[in-house]
Amino acid sequence: MKFWIGAAVAMALAIAIAGFVNYEYFFFAGYTVLMFVVLATAWNILGGYAGYVNFGTPAFFGLGAYTAALLYKTYAAPLALQILAAAGMAGLLGCATGLLTLRLRGIFFAIATIALVVMMETVFVAWRYAGGATGLQLLRPAPTAPFESYIKMLFVLMAAMAVASVVIARYIERSWIGRGLRAIRDSEQAAEASGVPTLKLKVFACTVCGALMGAAGAPMPMYLSFIEPFSTFNLNYAIGALASPMIGGTATWLGPVIGAVVLSTLQQVVTVTVSNETNVLVVGVLLVVFIVAAPEGILGLFRKLKR
Hints:
Blueprint: H1 2-20, H2 24-49, H3 57-75, H4 79-101, H5 106-126, E1 136-137, H6 150-174, H7 176-186, H8 188-193, H9 198-217, H10 220-224, E2 226-227, H11 229-232, H12 236-248, H13 254-273, H14 278-293, H15 297-306
Antiparallel strand pairs: 1-2
Helix pairs in contact: 1-6, 2-6, 2-9, 2-12, 2-13, 3-4, 3-5, 3-9, 4-9, 6-7, 7-9, 12-13, 12-14, 12-15, 13-14
């Protein structure tokens, strides 16, 4: 009950902020923070619960973004349809990736996911209809009532997607699926010997992970009014999605949320006060600090202090 009350309060707060705050940059920054909540939560389903370190976030995110952009360019599809199509396409890519690579373990799986990012970027660089290397310029449609600006609408939309992704992650964590994924993480051979359908669970986790990442990428073309391959398939998305659960804690659905809010907010502050190039340094320093001082993340540190 507390969880559902918290989810409802979070959505009500997002809507209230959109109604009363008029500082436009706040919504640009808030959108980015909420986007990384979705990406970190999605990453944790495969990387945290199942223990498969995934660097392929930009591939799923970028496919979702390009799916949405091409639907808008070709058919002027509404944003809701763009998000559904992006989630479907990225989910299919996740399923295919799972079937082809999830028999790999450790560094071999991580390398395969990096290769996936390079392949997807190469495809869209060479695809002229999608803009090729120069990308596509998009014009935002008029904002939908009751929102007075499009960025406010995207902020509330991303808040809803963040809440939805957390609901999905929490359900998976508390169901037999989550128990099976944790068994795979602890010992895949023992889990399979105990009757856990390891391959099915891994493919399921990869599909859900990809679908959520694709959905998170769908509003990005309208957020920027522009899309091009090199920034869309940037590995910084993979670093942020991986670092947030590591900082917050990978053992629970709440860890990625805390880590994403802390890390992304700090990056936005650093971008405004110092420079955009310092972001990667911030991520690296925080990762080293938490890996050495608090390997279980902020939640693990809190539990130790509480005990």
